[in-house]
Amino acid sequence: MNEDIIRMAREAGANMTCDYPDDWFFEDDALEAFAALIASRVAAHIRETEFKPDWNNYRQGFADGAAEEREACAKVLDEMAAD
Which residue in 5, 25, 77, 79 is deepest, having the highest Cβ count within 10 Å? Predict the structure, then answer.
């Protein structure tokens, strides 16, 4: 298990069994706290990597790709016309 996950599970109040070291038990409150810690870590990762999905970026990427495709097609047609 990832050390960060183990740390967050312990911080949330999870109990590890002695019989099986990979088995964790969560009371309802601990499970909710663990989920909140995971969500917080994911949000921090998104902020750290500046991953910001939005439609403007998608539309711009789509438009850029379409422009490149049109240019490539025009180049092929120009070569075919020259032959």
Answer: 5
Buried residues in 55-83 as b, exposed as e (16+ CB within 10 A)? eeeeeeeeeeeeeeeeeeeeeeeeeeeee
Please state, in angstroms and rounded to a whole number, the distance separating the CA atoms of residues 58 and 64.
Answer: 10
Looking at the DSSP assignment, which residues form a beta bridge with residue 24?
A: 16
Tokens matching residue 28: 């309802």
What distance in Å separates the CA atoms of residue 45 and residue 81, rounded to the nearest whole number? Answer: 52
| Statement: residue 72 has pLDDT above 80 | yes
User: What is the model's pLDDT at position 36?
Assistant: 92
Residue 24 reports pLDDT greater than 80: no
| C-beta pairs of 32-39 under 8 Å, 24+ apart in sequence | 34/8, 34/9, 36/12, 37/8, 37/11, 37/12, 38/5, 38/8
